[in-house]
Structure formats: structure tokens, C-alpha cells
């Protein structure tokens, strides 16, 4: 009879009734570890954001500071300077940014939003802040214009009116240009919204106003009336001046450009249809020209640059930017629709020759800078990490404090991937200065991507994170290893597919050995080795044709997904055996330096049934093993010997100690038996520098090769070429792996039918044939470690720990052959050792600590060049395994040498090894669940970091599991966040905040304190270029630029006050940072100068009074002195 324990019942009731997480500590007399981490060591804050601005809507450029600003539809601002100088700001309203204007060389930026608000940003601080805001309530903002070196901002509205705002005080002026006064009195129609405002380059008192309906007005600011009006039949989208102020150009909705003289208001002097075909007298209409710019040069013809205007018959043509220079017209195709473009010029003055040298083109998903000074208009190589979204991101991994030689190695091979034909000039957006922070350590971000069939495969991008800098180092296309040749029928059948079969789902990476393993959504696993040498591989293949099948779905999908180069492993059962056609490359596969395919494992489609997706993945370079699992079970692959070590169902991991009640069912009968298909391919490697290294084929007879797979026997074809294991039986189609399967491919030279001395080395039948869906258990996590495999062990053993979705952690002991030649020949033996611990919820993370509480990383093998022909002894020196040292503390027994930290979706436990007793337990959440958990190394100790679905980020001490930080940071609003959130060492974390942007955060107090020094500075003191020389004759005869005293014209004295109901002034943040920003910004400088002048005048007045008083006192003293002298 089982002993009743009332204490467990009370503990369970206490845990259920408690609404807050609780810590339960077991006997710990022998588990006293001094924990150094405290709550003061943690603070959560955002650091930097990288990537392309999501859904951009507007753009501006400061030609003196060399700073680029991009606004988005979500109200975000991204500012870019030189590589490594970036900044992210966010408007609280979240409305789209429709217009941006720099206060050139003043360290300030004006933004206009779709909610009719205008904001002034101070850029003279590392984290820009809003100084002033103005919210319009009766009119919608459509256009903004701020003349160079002016403090008056013109704001055009949807009603056709123009208001003026003083950027110093951010107050409206009483001067208003009404639409009914701008157009002719005889006109009865409304001219439409204001689409353009700009002053005449040679006369600041003349303002040109473009209305959407096709009316352009030249307004005299002093006389407050229209000098000229220009009318065209088509709607206007933009207007641009010639620098002499005598002509301007308009772009229209019918794809035409009209050039006007300011004194000739009848008809345009020239009408151009850049992309129109001449059909008789009048060119055919084209698409609207959305924007045009007119830039002049001292030598040569002017540039006319425009976007849009293509012919309507160009269906499917890419968006284009057109550059017209003299008689030549260049049409530059873009990959994405054009949002906006700006021409970069040598001078900020509009009344001088512009001398354009580049065009910045903002696309929906890219930023392109075109060099106008070179023939062919090449683009500049973009130094920003804006290609993260080049293909949609499916998963991320984040590694901090990587080996110092890793980034140079990745950079050396990644630099060879760069495209050719870039401009030879330096990147023109180079403003700002780097931060002065002292914290610097190499970091790597790996992003897995998806590729649709229209694109050539899938990308995996590795990036280096140094301080606040991000640089793309290396790209890897994993789809290259698959045969993607499909017929037209196949292509049409895949159009309805929502997922790409080559998309990466999970990644595992060892920075020390540089081994990389990726799992795709099509249940394939690819193992890569890193090499600095180029290598050519060809395939030795023996094929076996099975019985035909009419399953066309299986044919097409398998032809698409099956990799015919290296190793293919099936872990699926099927009702029917289908004809699986593999398309082998007839030519050798050339692999460039970098990551090269070493092994491919593929779970195949059979009888139209897709394989279950892989849910967990891990590799260990010291053991030479890769393990992956899904809802059916797990498989362990030895990538050194190219063999399958273990293939085991989830239920069979427990053996006879299964703690769950799984009711078996009577299986349905089927005409076909289930089987396991194992395809194994080997490589012939031809190293370009060393010649051929052939692998001998087997000597199987043709009779064996043609043996029927339905015979029930193991058929071996060649040596390591093709193995088909057929297991007959009748099972239901609800579960694939309901038997214990262990298929081991024999090593070279061994008998293929030899059974290894391992209780799990051969297939065994199981009494459990089906389980309910509710009780289905998947593999959720793995962890390799040298630890105590069994309870009471005294020696360390290589182990594999398996976590399941039902909260069970099981251990498997690994018996590895000695290093060297024996590792290539002797088998790896795996033995289950039982259940380590059970928790609530799916197991998320496992880690091990030594007796002092320090983290024990998994053993690894140092990187070596795999394509060298060194002798055996020299090669084994670099391949020597790194030993794991155990240093038990003096306060505990030698038997308690390690601690296992296990975290599930709900709770965390710490297990003492080898006694396997739970010494600490903490319920992390009751109402939510954990999305990501990692045991991380901080500078002061080890911590457990968790991100919950309710948005809380928490840290706990290890091994004590004391709560150290709990911040409600970010609610789970998008599955992208859950899929990409990553913790790493030294208090860093990251996630994809949008489909195109990476947000990095820190939970380290040290990083938060040093963040201000680490961030770059956007504003740097630069002298404003001198104004163009007017010349003697222009100054004598008045032909130069005419200035305007806008303060006198628009000030409150002459223009009066604006209506209070028109707009509401909102002061900026009242915090100390905003006040400091105002003190250092342009508005603060102007106000401070004014105060200084007032103080100076007051002091001068006081000085005059004191001087007068002193003079009077001196006169009085002199008078009294004379009187005394006379008296004496």
C-alpha cells in the first residue's frame, strides 16, 4: 500500500490557493552558495533599434550636418548619421509622419503628423526630445516648408490656406494666406489642398503656392496679394524652382512636366512627357509624376529627377526613378515602390548652383543612394543593417561575448559575398559622432528567414553587435542544397501554399566550433561546417525504385523538398509506399568559403501525409552529435560517422516508468504496413587545393539492389549509400512513432547487419499503439552536458537531457568512443537513465552549475579547418576535447558537485546532483505562461531570465531562485515577438519589434548607467557654408537675392494674434532632460541670447547709474575738499 503523505497535500493546497508566485526551498544545509546578484544589479531599458524603418512615409536631410531622418506610418522617427550613429524616436499619438523639415545646421527637426499636429524635436542630445507641439483642430495639414535660416514655418492645409508658425516659440502668427484671396475672384471652384510651398530663391518676399487642382500662385508676402497665377488642366503633385528664380517646373497627374516663366502666366514655355509615346499630335497619357526636382550645375545641363510617370501599358514593370540630364534620360528600376526621394547637393542655399552629387531614394522596404557623378549612376554600398527583412524573419538567436577570432573570420568570408559595381565614393550620409563608451564585446545575432518560390532560396544572416553598432557579416542560403526544379504544373499547385518549404524554423549554433545546424518547416535538418577554403563536392549515389504510386501530391512535394546531395533520413510511417523521385545534380556542387553543408536529414512526405515539424534542436561539437525532436519522438544523429544513433518515440523514453495514463486503443486494420525509410548519401569531396579524396563504394550486387522493400528485411545497398528498413504492422494514422525504433547505420567497413551492444540499438514492439490527442507529448528542449547520469554516480558522464511538453526531464547517458580513429569507427551508445524531474508546463530551458554556483557551459570542440590534409596527429591536436572541470566547494560534500536548473512554462526548479533532490522551487506565473527563458551569465553572477506572455520580464537568482526583477514591459501583441525574443549573457536581450526592425534591450544596471556614453551624437558643431557671392554688378543693379524681414512682417506687432481656436500649443516634456535639451537646442540658444542681451542692457544701465552716482560723489567730495582748503 502506498504511503499517504499529508504534507504533500497541504503543500498542493497552499500552492493552488496562493495568488502570487512562491518559493519552496528544500533541505539546504549542504547547499549554501553565496549569491552575489541583487535587485540593484538589474534595470530594464531600451537601448537601440536596428533595421529598416517599418512602413516609411516621409524623409528629410540636413545638408550641413549630413543627417537623414525617416518618418513612418506608426509615428516613429529614425535618424541616421555615419555607420554606428542611429537614433529612434516615437510620437506618442502613433499617427503617420507626413512631412519632415530640418532646421538646417541647428540641431532641430520639425515633424508634421497625420493627426494635424506639428512637433519640434531637439537633436542636440543623445536621446532627442520634443520641445514644442502644436495641434490644429479645424484644418488638416497637407504640406510644410521651412526656408533656410528662417524661424517661420509655412503650413499648408487641406482647405487651401497657409498658416505661419514661429519655430522659436511655436506660436501661430496672425498672418494667414487665404485660398480665396490667392485665386482669381472669378473662379468659382475650390483650388484644392495645398501641395507645395516654397519661396523664390532670389526673392524671399515671393512665395509660390501649388494647389492640387492645377493652380499655381506667386504670392507677394509684403503686399499680401497674388502677383501671377498659372493654370493647367491637370492636377499638380509637386513644384520645383530653378536656382535663378525665373523658372519653375511642375509635375502633373497625366505624366507631364510643365516649365513656366514667372512673368509669363498664360501657357508653360515647355511641356514634357518623359515616358509618353508620340501618338499623332499629342502624347498618350501616363501615370502621375509624384515628385520632380530641378537641380543646376555650373558646368553642363541641369538635372531633372522625377518619380513615376510611366506609361500605362507597362504592366508589371518595376517602379522607376528617372534622371534627365541634357539629352540623356536614364530610367532606374527599383525593387519596391518609391515613397520619397531627395537630391543631395553641395550647397544648402537655393539661390546658388546646386551641384547635385547623389539621390536618396526611400522605398517601401529599402533605402537606395544613387551616385549622380559617375557614368551609369551606380548606387552606394549601404553600410546600415537594413537588409534584415530582405526575407521575412522566422526565428532569431543572440550570442554575447563570442570568441574574439570569430567576427574576423565571418567578415573575411562575408566580404566575398558583396556585390560588385558599387560607387567608389564614400557613403554621403556621414554626420554625427560615435559614442565614447568603454563597454565593448563582440556579439552575434543570427536570423533565420523564409523565402517564397519567386526568390532564389532562403537566407540566414549573421550580424555583429559592437556597442550600439550592427553590421551584416555573412549570408547563407540554405535552399541551395535542395532540388528546386519544378514543372509548370507543380508551380501552379504551390501558389496556394502559405508557407515556404525552405523556411528556417529552429537554429542551433556553437560559436567555439562554428558548427551550425538549422531545421526547416519541411522537417529537414542541415548541418554546416565552417571552412575558409573553397571546396567542390560531388555525390556518389545508388538509387532504389519502389513500387509505383498514384499519389501526385507526394510526387510533386517530395521532388520539391527532397535533397539529393548528402543524407536523407525519414522518421515517418505511412499507409502506402510511394515512388520517391530524387533529382541528383549531375555536376559537382561548388561551395564557397564559409558555411558548407556537411549533412542533411530529411523527414519525407509519404502517401500524402506531411512530416511533423521539428520542435527542438541541439548540437554538440565535442560529442559530434545532433539531436532533434517533434511530436512523435526524437532522433540522434552522429554527424562524424554519418549515422543515426537513436530513433525513439516519445512514449518509449519512459520505458516502464511512464507517469502518465495513456489508454491504448485497438488498432485499425490497414492493407499496408508501416515502414521507416532511411536514405543515406555520402560525399566525394574535391578540395580545390588538394585534389580528390574518393570514398569507396560498396559491392552490392544488382540482385540486392532490386530487392523488394516489402520483403520485411533490411536491405543494404552499397556501403553507406542506401538503407531501407521495413517494419510491418498495423497501426492507426493518428500517430507515427508508436513503436521503439532504433536504426543505426553501420560505420565504414563494418557488417551492415551487425547489432550494437545497446538495449536501444534495435527496434522493439510496443504494447502502446495509440494515445489520445490530449495526452500527446512532444519534445520541447535538449541539453548536452558532462554531468552525473544516474543517482549516486561519482564520475562525470556525457549526457543528453530531454525536456517534454508535459514538463518531464529525462536523461540519456552517452558512451562515446575515444578521440581519433576510433571515433570514426566505434559506435556511440545511448542508454536512458530515467526521469530527473517533473514540472508544470512545457520544459523551456535547462542549464548546469558547479558547486560554487558558476555556470557550466556544454563541452565544445575548438574550431579546426575541415578541408586541410594534415596528418592524423596534428589534426587531433586541434580536435582535442575541452575537459569540464568540477571544483566542489569546501562547504559541501564531494558527492553534491553540480546543480541542474530547469525552467518550464510555469515554474523553475534546481536539482542537486548526483542525489537528484530538488533543493529550490519557484512558481514563476500562475495566470500566464513563459515564452522564453534562458540561464544567463551576468557580470556579477548567474541569473534566470524569463519573458512571459503577459509582457512581464523577470529575473531570478540562481540557484536560490529569488525574484530580482519583475517589469511589465511588453504585452504579447504579435506572435513575431514570441518567436524572436532572445536573452543572452551580460544582461542583453532582443526581439523583432516589427517585420523589419530589431529592438535591443538591456536588463543590466551597468549597461543602463553607461548607455548615455555608448550612444552616438547626432549633432556636431559645423560652420555653416558661406552664402554665394552676389557679385559687383548684381549688388550695384539689384540683381542679387532679395532678403525679407519676416519678423517685422509676421510678428505680433504687425500681423496680430492668431485665433486661439485654430490650434493648441502643447509644451514639450517638462522633465529635466527636456529642459536640458531646450537649453542646448536652437530655441534655447535664441532664448538664451535674448536673455543675455537683456541682462547686458540691464547691467549697462546699472553701470551708468553707478558711474553717475560716483561722479556726483566725486564732485561732492571735490567741493568739500575745496571748502576745507579755503577754511584752512
TrEMBL record:
Record-annotated V-SNARE coiled-coil homology domain positions: 1071-1128
Keywords assigned: Cell membrane, Coiled coil, Cytoplasm, Exocytosis, Membrane, Phosphoprotein, Protein transport, Repeat, Transmembrane, Transmembrane helix, Transport, WD repeat
Classification via InterPro entries: Lethal2_giant, Lgl_C_dom, LLGL2, V_SNARE_CC, WD40/YVTN_repeat-like_dom_sf, WD40_repeat_dom_sf, WD40_rpt
Region: Disordered, residue numbers: 871-891
GO MF term list: GTPase activator activity; myosin II binding; syntaxin binding
One of the protein's GO biological processes: Golgi to plasma membrane transport
WD repeats: 229-263
Any single GO CC term annotated in Swiss-Prot or TrEMBL for this entry: plasma membrane
SUPFAM superfamilies: SNARE fusion complex, WD40 repeat-like
Segments crossing the lipid bilayer: 455-474, 717-742
Signal peptide limits: none
Entry's localization field: Cell membrane; Cytoplasm
Short name of one Pfam family: Lgl_C
Similarity remark: Belongs to the WD repeat L(2)GL family.
Protein name: Syntaxin-binding protein 5-like
Organism: Sander lucioperca
Amino acid at each position: 500500500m502506498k504511503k499517504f503523505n499529508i504534507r504533500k497535500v497541504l503543500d498542493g493546497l497552499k500552492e493552488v490557493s496562493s495568488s502570487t508566485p512562491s518559493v519552496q526551498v528544500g533541505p539546504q544545509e549542504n547547499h549554501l552558495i553565496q549569491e552575489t546578484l541583487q535587485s540593484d544589479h538589474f534595470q530594464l531599458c531600451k537601448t537601440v533599434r536596428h533595421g529598416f524603418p517599418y512602413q516609411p512615409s516621409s524623409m528629410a536631410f540636413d545638408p550641413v550636418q549630413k543627417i537623414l531622418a525617416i518618418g513612418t506610418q506608426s509615428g516613429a522617427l529614425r535618424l541616421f548619421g555615419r555607420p554606428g550613429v542611429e537614433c529612434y524616436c516615437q510620437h506618442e499619438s502613433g499617427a503617420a509622419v507626413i512631412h519632415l523639415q530640418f532646421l538646417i545646421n541647428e540641431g532641430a527637426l520639425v515633424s508634421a503628423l497625420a493627426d494635424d499636429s506639428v512637433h519640434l524635436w531637439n537633436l542636440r542630445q543623445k536621446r532627442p526630445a520634443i520641445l514644442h507641439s502644436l495641434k490644429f483642430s479645424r484644418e488638416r495639414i497637407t504640406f510644410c516648408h521651412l526656408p533656410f535660416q528662417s524661424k517661420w514655418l509655412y503650413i499648408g492645409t487641406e482647405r487651401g490656406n497657409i498658416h505661419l508658425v514661429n519655430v522659436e516659440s511655436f506660436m501661430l502668427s496672425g498672418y494667414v494666406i487665404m485660398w480665396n484671396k490667392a485665386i482669381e475672384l472669378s473662379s468659382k471652384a475650390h483650388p484644392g489642398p495645398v501641395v507645395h510651398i516654397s519661396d523664390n530663391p532670389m526673392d524671399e518676399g515671393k512665395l509660390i503656392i501649388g494647389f492640387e487642382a492645377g493652380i499655381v500662385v506667386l504670392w507677394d508676402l509684403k503686399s499680401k496679394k497674388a502677383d501671377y497665377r498659372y493654370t493647367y488642366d491637370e492636377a499638380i503633385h509637386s513644384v520645383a524652382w530653378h536656382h535663378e528664380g525665373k523658372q519653375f517646373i511642375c509635375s502633373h497627374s497625366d505624366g507631364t512636366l510643365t516649365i513656366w516663366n514667372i512673368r509669363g502666366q498664360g501657357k508653360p514655355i515647355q511641356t514634357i512627357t518623359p515616358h509618353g509615346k508620340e501618338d499623332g499630335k499629342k502624347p498618350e497619357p501616363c501615370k502621375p509624376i509624384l515628385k520632380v526636382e530641378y537641380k543646376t550645375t555650373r558646368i553642363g545641363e541641369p538635372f531633372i529627377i522625377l518619380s513615376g510617370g510611366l506609361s500605362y501599358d507597362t504592366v508589371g514593370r518595376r517602379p522607376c526613378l528617372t534622371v534627365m540630364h541634357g539629352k540623356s534620360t536614364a530610367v532606374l528600376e527599383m525593387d519596391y515602390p518609391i515613397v520619397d526621394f531627395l537630391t543631395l547637393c553641395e550647397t544648402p542655399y537655393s539661390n546658388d548652383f546646386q551641384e547635385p552629387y547623389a539621390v536618396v531614394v526611400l522605398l517601401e522596404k529599402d533605402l537606395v543612394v544613387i551616385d549622380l557623378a559617375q557614368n551609369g549612376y551606380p548606387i552606394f554600398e549601404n553600410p546600415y543593417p537594413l537588409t534584415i527583412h530582405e526575407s521575412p524573419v522566422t526565428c532569431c538567436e543572440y550570442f554575447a561575448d563570442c570568441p574574439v577570432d570569430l567576427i574576423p573570420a565571418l567578415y573575411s568570408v562575408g566580404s566575398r559575398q558583396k556585390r560588385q559595381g558599387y560607387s567608389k565614393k564614400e557613403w554621403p550620409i556621414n554626420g554625427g559622432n560615435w559614442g565614447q563608451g568603454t563597454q565593448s564585446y563582440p556579439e552575434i545575432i543570427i536570423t533565420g528567414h523564409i523565402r517564397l518560390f519567386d526568390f532564389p532560396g532562403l537566407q540566414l544572416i549573421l550580424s555583429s553587435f559592437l556597442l550600439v553598432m550592427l553590421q551584416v557579416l555573412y549570408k547563407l542560403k540554405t535552399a541551395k542544397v535542395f532540388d528546386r526544379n519544378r514543372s509548370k504544373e507543380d508551380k501552379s499547385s504551390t501558389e496556394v501554399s502559405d508557407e515556404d518549404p525552405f523556411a528556417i524554423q529552429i537554429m542551433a549554433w556553437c560559436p567555439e566550433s562554428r558548427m551550425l545546424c538549422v531545421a526547416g518547416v519541411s522537417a529537414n535538418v542541415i548541418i554546416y561546417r565552417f571552412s575558409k577554403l573553397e571546396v567542390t563536392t560531388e555525390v556518389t549515389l545508388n538509387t532504389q525504385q519502389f513500387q509505383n504510386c498514384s499519389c501526385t501530391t507526394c510526387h510533386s512535394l517530395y521532388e520539391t523538398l527532397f535533397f539529393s546531395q548528402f543524407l536523407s533520413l525519414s522518421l515517418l510511417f505511412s499507409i502506402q509506399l510511394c515512388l520517391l523521385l530524387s533529382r541528383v545534380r549531375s555536376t559537382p556542387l561548388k561551395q564557397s568559403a564559409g558555411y558548407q553543408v556537411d549533412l542533411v536529414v530529411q523527414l519525407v512526405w509519404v502517401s500524402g501525409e506531411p512530416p511533423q515539424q521539428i520542435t527542438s534542436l541541439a548540437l554538440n561539437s565535442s560529442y559530434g552529435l545532433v539531436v532533434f525532436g517533434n511530436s512523435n519522438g526524437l532522433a540522434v544523429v552522429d554527424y562524424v560517422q554519418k549515422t543515426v544513433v537513436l530513433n525513439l518515440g516519445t512514449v518509449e523514453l519512459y520505458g516502464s516508468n511512464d507517469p502518465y495514463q495513456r489508454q491504448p486503443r485497438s488498432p485499425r486494420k490497414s492493407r499496408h504496413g508501416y515502414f521507416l525509410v532511411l536514405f543515406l548519401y555520402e560525399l566525394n569531396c574535391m578540395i580545390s587545393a588538394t585534389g580528390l579524396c574518393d570514398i569507396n563504394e560498396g559491392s552490392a550486387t544488382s540482385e540486392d539492389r532490386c530487392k523488394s522493400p516489402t520483403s520485411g528485411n533490411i536491405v543494404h545497398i552499397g556501403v553507406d549509400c542506401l538503407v531501407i528498413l521495413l517494419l510491418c504492422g498495423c497501426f492507426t494514422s493518428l500517430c507515427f512513432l508508436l513503436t521503439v525504433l532504433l536504426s543505426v547505420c553501420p560505420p565504414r567497413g563494418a557488417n551492415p547487419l551487425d547489432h550494437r551492444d545497446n538495449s536501444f540499438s534495435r527496434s522493439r514492439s510496443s504494447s502502446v499503439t495509440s494515445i489520445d490527442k490530449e495526452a500527446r507529448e512532444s519534445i520541447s528542449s535538449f541539453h548536452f552536458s558532462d554531468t552525473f547520469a544516474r543517482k549516486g554516480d561519482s564520475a562525470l558522464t556525457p549526457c543528453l537531457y530531454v525536456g517534454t511538453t508535459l514538463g518531464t526531464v529525462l536523461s540519456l547517458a552517452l558512451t562515446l568512443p575515444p578521440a581519433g580513429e576510433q571515433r570514426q569507427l566505434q559506435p556511440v551508445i545511448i542508454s536512458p537513465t530515467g526521469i530527473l524531474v517533473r514540472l508544470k508546463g512545457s520544459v523551456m530551458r535547462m542549464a548546469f552549475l558547479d558547486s560554487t554556483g558558476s555556470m557550466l557551459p556544454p563541452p565544445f570542440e575548438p574550431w579546426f579547418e575541415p578541408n586541410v590534409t594534415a596528418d592524423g596527429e596534428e589534426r587531433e591536436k586541434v580536435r582535442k576535447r575541452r575537459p569540464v572541470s568540477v571544483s566542489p566547494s569546501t562547504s559541501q560534500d564531494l558527492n553534491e558537485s553540480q546543480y541542474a536548473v530547469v525552467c518550464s512554462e510555469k515554474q523553475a526548479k534546481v536539482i542537486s546532483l548526483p542525489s537528484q533532490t530538488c533543493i529550490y522551487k519557484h512558481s514563476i506565473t500562475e495566470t500566464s505562461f513563459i515564452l522564453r527563458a534562458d540561464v544567463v551569465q551576468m557580470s556579477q553572477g548567474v541569473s534566470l531570465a524569463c519573458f512571459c506572455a503577459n509582457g512581464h520580464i523577470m529575473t531570478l537568482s540562481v540557484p536560490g531562485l529569488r525574484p530580482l526583477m519583475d517589469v511589465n514591459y511588453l504585452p504579447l501583441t504579435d506572435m513575431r515577438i514570441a518567436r524572436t525574443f532572445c536573452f543572452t549573457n551580460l544582461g542583453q536581450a532582443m526581439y523583432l519589434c516589427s517585420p523589419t526592425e530589431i529592438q535591443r534591450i538591456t536588463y543590466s544596471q551597468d549597461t543602463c548607467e553607461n548607455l548615455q556614453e555608448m550612444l552616438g551624437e547626432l549633432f556636431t558643431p559645423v560652420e555653416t557654408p558661406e552664402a554665394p557671392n552676389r557679385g559687383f554688378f548684381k549688388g550695384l543693379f539689384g540683381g542679387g537675392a532679395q532678403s525679407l524681414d519676416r519678423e517685422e512682417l509676421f510678428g505680433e506687432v504687425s500681423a496680430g494674434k492668431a485665433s486661439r481656436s485654430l490650434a493648441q500649443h502643447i509644451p514639450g516634456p517638462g522633465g529635466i532632460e527636456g529642459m536640458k535639451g531646450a537649453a542646448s537646442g536652437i530655441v534655447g540658444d535664441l532664448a538664451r541670447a535674448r536673455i543675455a542681451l537683456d541682462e547686458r542692457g540691464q547691467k549697462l544701465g546699472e553701470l551708468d547709474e553707478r558711474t553717475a552716482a560716483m561722479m556726483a560723489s566725486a564732485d561732492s567730495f571735490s567741493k568739500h575738499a575745496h571748502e576745507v582748503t579755503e577754511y584752512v
